[in-house]
Amino acid sequence: MTPVELRIRGISGMPRVRAGDDLGALLADAIGRSGEVLREGDVMVVAQKVVSKAEGRIVRLTDLVPSPRAVELAAKTEKDPRAVEAILGEAVEVLRAVPGVLIVETRHGIILANAGADMSNIEHDEEDDHLLLLPEDPDASADRLRSALDAGGGGARIGVIVADSVGRAWREGTVGLAIGVSGPPARLDRRGERDFYGRELHVTEVAIADSIASAASIVMGEGAEGRPAALVRGLSFDDRSGAERAGRARDLVRPRERDLFR
After folding, report:
1. Contact criterion met (CB below 8 Å) for 181 and 142
2. Distance of CA 101 to CAs 71, 189, 230, Å?
3. Maximum distance among all alpha carbons in the chain?
């Protein structure tokens, strides 16, 4: 289960993704041009931005009319009221609103700044700014990409993780986070196993999908690298239960009653 070595390769050469594009086909072409052939157990990590673009999750700020709540929060956070309106449309709860920061819980259960809405690495025109939202259902997005890549991968059973960059409590900077999972486990329950000294593990659960997303983000980059996907090779989950291998990103969301940061 625990590999001695992993290979992570960024996948370049994809064209700019636009709404309605067949992202699975574009990824398959880019993988082929890189000289790679998908193998059993490979995990493809795909940037949320290209998934959202293909799914048409871009909004024009000029199309949005701020509500009184959006105007109120915009004043507190010093943000564009129209952008705040878009963020509220993706949120189920506002947790923090201070100058420069708007932390919310999204409908997916993820707690992050601005509901994941972002203006970086998307096209703009002279008249208006655009805002890119998270996929409607990132786990379903990962399922679709996995099906497309499985079909083009010679029958190899692979996994797909949709990754986004997020900040963390207590820590500066961002890391990759799995917001959509299809194929690999999202979480490994190691309770009942033994540590190096033979003691039973009572609380150890590994957020393996987040670890994979974070590692892949190193080669994918955050700026103009042009590598919206990464191939991760060397993982094996054959010793895990079928239930674990059917993991979803929602498995990583901590229940509200156990969330000590609320």
Report:
1. yes
2. 15, 34, 30
3. 65
Looking at residue 123, its pLDDT comes to 64
Q: Is the dihedral of CA 111, 117, 119, 121 positive or negative?
A: positive
Give the pLDDT confidence score for residue 206 in this predicted structure. 83
Q: For residue 105, what pLDDT is reported?
A: 94
| 58 DSSP β-pair partners | 132
Residue 162 has, within 13 A of its CA and on its CB side, a CA count of 28
Residue type (1 letter), 99: P
- With a pLDDT cut of 70, the percent of the chain lying above it is 89
SS3 137: coil
Helix (H, G, I), strand (E, B) or coil at 132: strand
- How many alpha carbons lie under 13 Å from residue 67 in its C-beta half-sphere? 8
Return the ∠ at Cα 9 (arms to 165 and 56), rounded to 5°.
45
Distance separating alpha carbons of residues 24 and 147, to the nearest angstrom = 8
Segment 231-254, tens digit of pLDDT: 999 988 776 666 666 789 998 888
Q: Which amino acid is at 51?
A: V
